[in-house]
Design brief:
Elements: E1 4-12, E2 18-26, H1 31-41, H2 44-58, E3 64-69, H3 71-76, E4 93-98, H4 105-117, E5 121-127, H5 135-140, E6 144-147, H6 158-173, E7 177-180, H7 186-194, E8 199-201
Parallel strand pairs: 2-3, 3-4, 4-5, 5-6, 6-7, 7-8
Antiparallel strand pairs: 1-2, 1-8
Helix pairs in contact: 1-2
């Protein structure tokens, strides 16, 4: 099975400046199914590690690189040898952890602390999907909060807008930067922007694709 990495831009909603890219693993099998199969076979950590290796190896840009870490793999312990990749600095790397999985927060927090000591940042992904656990914000102290695309489905009505605005205010109070995922239309961008959210990601700004190497 051929595995490769594609990248989706993360954009400043007011200036259209690309501030980073999220690395996404692709193959002939859908990513969710791929990781489920790996978990059943007991090789999830290996797949998770290889996905990060592919992303770091192929990324040669000055913007931030957002790379996913599966919570179960993070529990078992992962490694990122930053000295192996001379074309990227630890300060460019943002580790993404999905919030919808249950995991040992203590172990994950210890791992995250090690990477922070190297200069990396942390993003809590899929916030708002399923049963959101607000205590994860307190325990993991993420630098970024990525709102799941489901949060944008009802932003056209007053309740949906107020909810989004409330999350933005909460994040600001604790020093977290929000990234709204799933922006697909100009109208969605305008509403998200009017809430005071500065960063966004979605098909409106670009689909996941191979990046050209800068020369």
């Amino acid at each position: 099975m051929q595995l490769h990495t594609v990248f989706q831009p993360i954009v400043h909603l007011h200036t259209n400046e690309v501030i980073g890219f999220e690395a996404l693993l692709r193959s002939s099998v859908a990513p969710v199914q791929l990781f489920k199969q790996a978990e059943k076979k007991g090789v999830l950590s290996r797949l998770d590690q290889y996905a990060r290796y592919l992303a770091l190896q192929s990324y040669q840009r000055p913007e931030k690189l957002f790379i996913n870490c599966h919570p179960l793999a993070l529990e078992q312990g992962i490694s990122i040898d930053v000295h192996r990749y001379s074309h990227i600095t630890p300060e460019q790397i943002v580790l993404e952890i999905t919030e919808q999985n249950f995991f040992n927060v203590g172990k994950v927090r210890a791992q995250v602390h090690e990477f922070r000591e190297l200069g990396m940042k942390l993003a809590l992904d899929d916030f708002g999907h399923g049963f959101t656990n607000l205590s994860l914000i307190e325990f993991l102290e993420p630098d970024y909060l990525k709102l799941d695309k489901i949060m944008l489905r009802n932003i056209h009505n007053n309740k949906g807008y107020q909810l989004l605005n409330g999350i933005r205010k909460l994040a600001e109070e604790v020093g977290i930067t929000i990234i709204a995922e799933g922006i697909e239309t100009r109208q969605q961008r305008d509403i998200v922007r009017s809430c005071g959210i500065g960063l966004g990601q979605g098909w409106y700004y670009g689909q996941p694709a191979t990046l050209p190497v800068l020369t």
